[in-house]
Amino acid sequence: MVHEYRVSFIESLRLIAGCLLLFSLGITDVAIAQQHPVPFINQPLVPDAAKPGGAGFTLTVNGTGFVSGAVVHWNGSARATTFVSSSKLTASIVALDIATAKTASVTVVNPGPGGGTSDVAFFEVTPPASSVGLAPVSDATADRSYSVAVGDFNGDGKLDLAVADYVTGTVSVLLGNGNGTFQKHVDYVAGGLPESVAVGDFNHDGKLDLVVSNNGSNTVSILLGNGDGTFKPQVEYATGNFPVGVAVADFNGDGELDLAVANNDNIDIFMGNGDGTFEPAVNYPAGTSPGSPAVGDFNRDGKLDLVVANNGSFEINVLLGNGDGTFQPAVSYSTGSAPSSVAVADFNADGKLDLVVANNGSSNDNTVSILLGNGDGTFKAHVDYGTGSSNPSSVAVGDFNGDGRLDLVVADLFSTDVRLLLGNGDGTFQAATSYGAGPQPSSVAVGNFDGDGKLGIVITLSCKR
């Protein structure tokens, strides 16, 4: 009996130990469960335009952070999607999707845990054209607007605007009517001298939020969205001196959006907690007076990188990401005079991301610089294109004539014009064409605001009409 009891006791211990082991493994599995990143879409979509009434086709979406189970959404509705790789998806677009002229918003949604919705890419359903006509429509905000961001803040399928107003210390929200006009602006308090605004869902509730860089108070403001076009009061986070530009992306692949803020000395990286709050900033040197940051995977390693325009010198700086929210030391590339704005896209369709830089220097420059990417995180020497303008301050990218080639739009700070440079599809661009805008256009953004199938341009004016 003693022997039998001893065996039973030992077996019991083994069973208990086994249960403890299984329980421990269960905890470990939960702790190390793979978090899916927030995906990131590259421009352009392939194709990025189609004629109305055409047949269905396969859409290729290139980017970073795609996972098995990722789904391409067309105007918010899922389309049959094939996972090719972490940088490529294909989706089936049916004939009904392009039956009439429109501009579709294309996003990628990664499943949980983590995951979420990507940035927006636009697909034009319009006949191709050799030229572009732009008709200005005026909507007043407050005193001096330095930056504009685009998003659907109330979920009605119509694009809205958020505008940083430097003088009043507010961010103005203008809800879109879907016909190219906007409702009267509603203003929200930000920090001192807000200069840049960007959009993202920082608390994973499916409602777009705002981040504003405040040049006068050395902070960024987070305004969480209510989903109806209104926003909660700001919460501020300390930055370095004189923050200028801000970019939003998931830099550590944990499924939570992070921030990159350019200030007078550094790039500040704020890691997101996923509930609308952020960790204190970590600083990275980024040249002289870094201004406008932009995001892309420049060396195709699946980790998002940063590029920043250095207004205090004739260069940009590229910081390759390590995939954990940290970055390698900045590498400099020369540009034109006093670069102020940078955008990222594949201009020559070789699968490698390129850069365009607006050079806001002396009146003898007046150029944008194109730096074609080598695909390994390095870039070729810049090639400059004249804008014929006075101090280019901002540049944005889109296919404005529906020919499948990316074009450029440039704001001219010391003029009343914006300039459009149509792309040739090989990384080169045609001569600039001028369009009247208003006094001192400072920032440009792209979207379809009237549902006509053609991309539109929204422009902020730093001098009130």
- Measured as a percent range, the helix fraction is under 10%
DSSP summary: helix tally: 1
Alpha-beta content class: mainly beta
Strand coverage percent: 35-45%
The 3D shape can be described as globular
Low-confidence parts: 1-32
For the termini, the CA-CA separation is: 100 Å
Tell me the Rg in angstroms: 24 Å
Biggest sheet details: 6 strands, mixed
Tell me how many strands there are: 36
Mean pLDDT: 87
What can be said about this structure in brief?
The protein has 465 residues and is mainly β. Helix content is 6%, strand content 40%. The protein contains one helix and 36 strands.
Describe the SSE topology.
Elements: H1 2-31, E1 40-41, E2 49-50, E3 57-64, E4 71-74, E5 77-79, E6 81-85, E7 88-93, E8 102-110, E9 116-117, E10 121-125, E11 145-151, E12 160-165, E13 170-174, E14 186-189, E15 194-200, E16 209-214, E17 219-223, E18 235-238, E19 246-249, E20 258-262, E21 266-270, E22 282-285, E23 290-296, E24 305-310, E25 315-319, E26 331-334, E27 339-345, E28 354-359, E29 367-371, E30 383-386, E31 392-398, E32 407-412, E33 417-421, E34 433-436, E35 441-447, E36 456-461
Parallel strand pairs: 2-10
Antiparallel strand pairs: 1-3, 3-7, 4-5, 4-8, 6-7, 8-9, 8-10, 11-12, 12-13, 13-14, 15-16, 16-17, 17-18, 19-20, 20-21, 21-22, 23-24, 24-25, 25-26, 27-28, 28-29, 29-30, 31-32, 32-33, 33-34, 35-36
